[in-house]
Design brief:
single chain; 51 residues; alpha+beta; two-stranded antiparallel sheet; 2 strands; 35% strand; elongated
Amino acid sequence: MAKKQVASLQKGGGKQHSKVVKMVRSPKTGAYSFKEEIVHNNKVKDWFAKS
């Protein structure tokens, strides 16, 4: 799946986007999970602050 994401980002305006990954802890079990998303470079800090 990662290959598809990288290939699609290289076409067009892909250099203006970044894949961001945040580790989130579950309040119920205490286990960690990862949230991944592709966002525009200008909105990376907002994404981390919001989620």
